[in-house]
Amino acid sequence: MEAKIVTRDSICLIGMGFYGDPCSNASAWSEENEIGRLWKRFMGFWHKSPDLIPNVKDHNVALEVHIETAETKEKGYSEIFIGVIVEELKYLPLECVAKVLPPTQYAVFTLKGEEITADWGKKIYQDWLPASDYQLSYNYNIQYYDQRFKGMDKIAESTVDLYLPVVPLNHLDF
Amino acid sequence: MKALQHIYQSILYMEANLKNPITMSEAADAAGYSLYHFSRIFNQATGHSPYDYVIRRRLSEAARELINTDKKIIDLALDYQFNNPETFTRAFHKMFDILPSKLKSNNDYSDLIYLTPLTYDLLLHLKQNPIALPTIIKKDLLCFLGLVFYGETPDSESSLYQQLKNEIKKEKIKTANNYYSLLFNPTAWSCQKNGMIAVEINLNAETPGPLIMKKVIAARYFLFPYHGKLDNINYTLSYLYQTWFPKSGFKPRIDLALICHGNADHQQIVILIPINRLN
Q: Which of B35, B240, B247, B257 could form a disulfide with B28 if both were Cys (CB 3.0 to 4.6 A apart)?
């Protein structure tokens, strides 16, 4: 996979979160996993009350952030956050939480079509990263959804950017 | 089917390490996937998250040992990688609805629904015959007339079916023309099933010849359409009891399952499982 390296200041997000195994079925009544439910929950709220999240940078952009925790490797649990980028944290609706992602460099991968649902994690973390001149700066990744994403039912026509926080090798070794 | 084989490799890895400390990251390695992708595929194939599968399998094996050996609860908790007896007891109660200490002193283990190891054949069956969304129906007192069996559920070619058909014809029994298999121990995976093949009759009917009458009290049932082969229906039954029901919030009765074969042609099979209560 090919990546371009970009640098970003801290990113301020307002959205909603979930902690646990994101792929477990919420119930036997539904095929949805927790991520799908989280998207519906947040987008439902945002569309119903857009004014409650002021200063949204781009109304066509929403992020899905996967944050590794101490329980990720052992139990497969992680924190999933879905939200929108805001200019600054002026107001936080009761239904939402905020995240401030630290300033860092990112390796940006563009996933197209079937790549979105394939095992990109293996290609990026197990193939690309060890062969690159970078190491992880933080234990999270961002899926960046904008107008290029047409929906899960039109995955062949869709594009998603994957942001991996990185730092040049040895940069963290003081 | 390649993904299914990879998932099965991870199941073998988990099964081999129920008494060892393993991480889901290692299980993902055994399948050859990244952890996130593994979790997604594993859930699709099995209906369990990987961690949920390991915990339920550990609790199931611990329950067996608790019943069949003199091991102490604390030893079982540590053997099966629970940090302490309290964590083990909480998880055990959540899965089996009984405390391990109570189970030990209890002589009746028939209520326990273990999670047995998932096999490749079962995963393949589920992929080819996904569980259809059920409906809940209420049935009043049902009355059946039929012949008992012990072992495999008889199919339409079996001599038992022929005998039942002949008796019905000979005695001119009026029926709704729906043939049933009644399973009286549907969750007894490791031993032979006992039950009867039968037709539904009205309550005032007589019991002619070698036929036996069975009355089933009024109940609410989950009705699952089944489109697979009758030979493989036990895969679906085991999945329903061991995986589907624990996640549904409903508790199945384990003394009866009805398999309705329609006009004995097995073209329109439905599974009816009575439920105890709504949680």
A: B35
What are phi and psi for residue B244, nearest 5 degrees?
-70, -50
Structure tokens at B130: 């996904």
Q: Any idea which architecture A4-168 has in CATH?
A: Alpha-Beta Barrel (3.20)
What total number of domains does chain B contain? 2
Using CB atoms, which residue from A27, A29, A121 is nearest to B36? Answer: A121
CB-based contact, B25 to chain A, within 8 Å: yes
Structural domain range at position B178: 135-278
Please name which of A98, A162, A55, A57 lies closest in space to residue B37, comparing C-alpha atoms. A162
- Specify if B66 maps to a domain: yes
Taking only the tens place, the pLDDT of each residue in A29-63 is: 345 788 888 999 999 999 999 999 999 999 999 99
B68 and B147: one domain?
no
- pLDDT, one tens digit per residue, over A77-126 is 999 999 999 999 989 999 999 999 999 999 999 999 999 999 999 999 99
B109 touches B122 (CB < 8 A):
no
**Interface probe, candidates B25, B29, B40, chain A, greatest A C-beta count within 10 A:** B40
Judge whether B52 is closer than 8 Å to chain A, CB to CB.
yes
Same domain, B37 and B163: no
| Residue B271 is assigned to a structural domain of this protein | yes
Q: Choose the closest CB to A73 out of B23, B33, B52.
A: B23
Residue in the structure block whose two tokens are 């860092």? A104
Amino acid letter, residue B276:
N
Alpha carbons B35 and B50: distance in angstroms, whole number:
10
Neighbours of A133 (CB within 10 A): 9
